[in-house]
Amino acid sequence: MENSKQEKTERHTLLLVVFWAYVLIPLGWGVFQTFRKAMALFH
Amino acid sequence: MSGFFTRERITAGHGYNRWLIPPAALAVHLCIGQAYAFSVFNEPLTRIIGVSQSAPDDWKLTTIGWIYSLAIVFLGLSAAFAGKWLEKVGPRRTMFTAACLFGGGFLLSAFGIKTHQIWLLYLGYGVLGGCGLGLGYVSPVSTLIKWFPDHRGMATGMAIMGFGGGAMIGAPLGVALMKHFQSATSVGVMEAFITMGVLYFISMVIGSLAIRIPAQDWKPQGWTPPAETKKMVTRRHVHIDQALMTPQFYLLWLILCLNVTAGIGILGQASVMIQEMFKGAITPEAAAGFVGLLSLFNMGGRFVWSSASDYLGRQNTYFLFFALGTFLYSMLPTFSGEGNIIMFIAAAAVILSMYGGGFATIPAYLADIFGTKFVGGIHGRLLTAWSTAGVLGPVLVNYIREYQISHGVAKADAYTTTLYIMACLLAVGFVCNLLMKEVHERHYMKHEDIDDPLQG
After folding, report:
1. ipTM here
2. In this structure, what DSSP letter does residue B188 have?
3. Measured between CA atoms, how close is B168 to chain A, in angstroms?
4. pLDDT one-digit tens code per residue, B131-168
5. Model's pTM, two decimal places?
6. B148/B141 Cα distance (integer angstroms)
7. Alpha-carbon distance B160 to B407, whole Å?
8. Å from B445 to nearest chain A CA?
9. Is the domain of B189 the same as that of B263?
10. Looking at beta carbons, which residues of chain B come within 8 Å of A29?
11. Contacts of A22 in chain B (CB under 8 A)
12. Residues B377-436: pLDDT tens digits?
């Protein structure tokens, strides 16, 4: 009983991490690209 | 299949982790935010026939400009007219419909490029895509408000930040795809449209599958609603139709419209403006960097300002936007006159952060004033202010500038009047915000009406 509850919690945590990574990785890539472009202003 | 979309099916069970909802909302907003980056296709679309350069039968830039304008107009119209429907059917069906419309709009536009029929691009990206934008924009936001009653501003900021971030993904992605697909016989736009249509459809469907709504009596663990409600924050609800009968709706409409008009005034002309105001000191590459910097502040402001509004209060946050915005706008010509580039850039960046912040804080302001029950539909109707500003902002800047140049004003000084006008618009916004009061007692729903059939 205790084990299955722990497994469920771990599965939820994994899902949470994967789902956030799914949206944050492309967003981070886009922000990085824009940041690189913005740096031209200070050269 | 229809049962798959019902509210009962997507009502979260006990112990559901609400932090799964923001990425579902972001999965949609990061896609539809591509609309801000549509301009990367403008120039290649003028070379569909000529490929290396425009042929006589190729579309003109003015013809292509209508695609984006139509998309923004239909964003507002669809969000406004589908308000009741989206409240009735719930977020999953709405987000799925948005995915079909936005992805389908890309595919239809690709067919329009293949057959060189501009009306298919107007219908595809402009009308269908615009409707997808409207539905996809509103639905996740209202769902997040219901999941985060303790941090409404932060929740709406997360999703709407995604809309700003979507352009940062859409622009380099569009450019990279066109580069990958271009050949001696194609500029690569059609292939890029097909790829993006499929990718965005899949991502938005993932968002719609993951979305959940909280149970009727759900509240965050360990959170109890404050015993005494704050001023200008209601726990009751105003019906979507009744909201239109209140002066508060129209004041908020003006607040959004004026804030967006002022922001677009800078955003749409940023590159040309900084080059002309600091002639010789700013290269085209540096000007492109300026646009990039403004985009970063626009996106960051969405999250930072709306989260701050949870502590400052919604009305105070808008007071800050309008007071600081008026001051900074009126200082821009001075900074330009002094040749103070650093202060000019800093002021423009803060203005753009408040432009984004205005977008992200408005749904939470609506929820405070009208309650959370119909906030999605009311927000949808309010977005007509965005469509209006989308036309008003560029027209104001362009026409005033043209008028001044034609009357002998130097290019470097041609923006001065426009910037002062923008400052005045923000001052009017300050007054509108000052006039905001709680909704009159007669507008609230009675307890027995709360379980409205509209809720499905």
Report:
1. 0.89
2. S
3. 5
4. 999 999 999 998 999 999 999 999 999 999 999 999 99
5. 0.90
6. 11
7. 41
8. 37
9. no
10. 169, 172
11. 23, 27, 206
12. 999 999 999 888 887 887 777 788 888 888 888 877 788 888 898 999 999 999 999 999
